[in-house]
């Protein structure tokens, strides 16, 4: 969860008179077909500002939806790539306890103080390892960021477990070290 959202949740009791959990309970007793209807209800019936109402409805919906394993979903039909993902995660977890691994719909972000890497099953035969490396020149397996745009400065394409060699580990370690 990002800092802005956590701050909003922390400020909710003071700003709205109720905690997030209390608002979720209130919404659980109502039936809405659309997100906008629930937002309008909180605004008109409870005097909640739009920003808080939208956040409450979004988080209530997430809480009530069945949890999906985003990583498993990413690798459906790409199962041969999963061992590479697992190896990368194991390597990163050994860097330190200050890493947050954040699965998203199409990728997994690796964050220390800032995001330093991104693991994305790019095709059925390739994982793209995006890295934030300040001032690193393109060399060897290290390419320009490719499809990551400004999210990462560089990319390494991985096709098999043996591609995760000392060179890749050194680049990943450097990205981690730079993310303080």
From TrEMBL:
DUF5655 domain boundaries: 74-179
Name under which the protein is recorded: DUF4287 domain-containing protein
Lineage: Bacteria, Pseudomonadati, Pseudomonadota, Gammaproteobacteria, Alteromonadales
